[in-house]
Amino acid sequence: MSHDSTTATTTAQEAAARKLSGRRRREIVAVLLFSGGPIFESSIPLSVFGIDRQDAGVPRYRLLVCAGEEGPLRTTGGLELTTPQGLEAISRAGTVVVPAWRSITAPPPEEALDAIRRAHEEGARIVGLCTGAFVLAAAGLLDGRPATTHWMYAPTLAKRYPSVHVDPRELFVDDGDVLTSAGTAAGIDLCLHIVRSDHGNEAAGALARRLVVPPRRTGGQERYLDRSLPEEIGSDPLAEVVAWALEHLHEQFDVETLAARAYMSRRTFDRRFRSLTGSAPLQWLITQRVLQAQRLLETSEYSVDEVAGRCGFRSPVALRGHFRRQLGSSPAAYRAAYRARRPQQGEAPGSAAAKQPPEKPPVEPAPVPGPAEPLVAQSGPGPVPAQSRRAAAAATAHGPVATSVAAVPAGHQGRAQA
């Protein structure tokens, strides 16, 4: 979460603590498991909150493992799980964690949703890891709130629950008494954040050392996102417009052009596009152009100027600005880092040629501030766009990536920063 939201979050957490009902205890953590949930995500809160590590300076929690439905519960690899507790045990928990849900389209059991709603009404902190966010959304706990989930499922979450402010860029979102995380390993980030919120940096750092993970990861999910849109869009009339846009990224066109092709006003197109994809069309289009630039930088010998032209950017300066904002690196530095990690074709990974240090990338001018760019696909030189995007620090250290953006109301971003 961002540091500028720390005060607001602290206030919300204090309010939640004050209204916790008498039968609940903050140190009791209930983990709600369902059949069909993946074992990795399910095991994260069990490991963080269920093992006594007081010898390492980590305060102890009391763990209750609860079945959200009749068992036995089947998980990854055909394993069957039995839990020592049922839904009734949630009534004692100060924190309820839903680590996963088996289907992004199927509704969770109503009995489990009732138990989660009741826990929230009684002041419990409710946590959804990965697809567990769909359970929280089904319970109505994310209405009007910021939230995240695995980037692959974020568009579906936004479409199924339009009142949720879904941000697929974040590793986790802390909205006080309701918290959500991105997929898989991001659940560890959120659990460490909870320990940090409850017991301070020292305790969270000690736990991170025992888990052999960084106490805080920088950046968000954008380095892992791809260009995919939800499968549901395939039957929508906008699918043809989206396909056309992806096939013509090298051409100069803007969102008004896409709206016209869909026979819609710009306002209607924006609303319809966001409801289907969870992303604003302008941000989506910019992201696709950056993705295309990544591919050309990785696979071609085109200069940065040529790449800009072949991706619909109106100038190399515009490409550099958007590329740096989304990936935290210049195009030339990204190409150099990518090639340093991948030996030239025909060279063995351990060969002498492959071990040669890469040439330093040329120094590129920093983007020049200017008025907001109406769209990246215009001809001729012009000012650099001024979309407000957080740079993904050290993105080039993680290999070739792809990104996606969904607009989130101001003040609703929750970010994990070092």
Report what the structure shows.
- With 418 residues, this protein is α/β, with parallel strands linked by helices.
- The protein has 2 domains: 3-222, 3-Layer(aba) Sandwich (Rossmann fold); 231-398, Arc Repressor Mutant, subunit A (Orthogonal Bundle), CATH 1.10.10.60.
- It is 38% helix and 10% strand.
- The protein contains 15 helices and 10 strands.
- Strands 2-1-5-6-10-9 form a 6-stranded mixed β-sheet, with helices on both faces. Strands 3-4 form a two-stranded antiparallel ribbon. Strands 7-8 form a two-stranded parallel ribbon.
- The radius of gyration is 23 Å and the shape is globular.
- The N and C termini lie close together (10 Å).
- The chain crosses the membrane at residues 28-51.
Gross morphology: globular
**Number of separate domains:** 2
Name given to the CATH homologous superfamily of the largest domain: Class I glutamine amidotransferase (GATase) domain
SSE pattern: HEHEEEEHEHEHEEEHHHHHHHHHH
Secondary structure class reads alpha/beta
Content of β-strand: 5-15%
Can you count the beta strands? 10
Q: Indicate the CATH architecture of the largest domain.
A: 3-Layer(aba) Sandwich
Query: Do you know the CATH topology of the largest domain?
Result: Rossmann fold
Radius of gyration: 23 Å
How many separate helices?
Answer: 15
On the 0 to 100 scale, the average pLDDT is 78
| Largest β sheet strand count, sense and barrel closure | 6 strands, mixed
Strand order of the largest sheet: 2-1-5-6-10-9
Region (Disordered): 338-418
Domain HTH araC/xylS-type: 239-337
Protein name: Helix-turn-helix domain-containing protein
Biased composition (Pro residues): 363-372
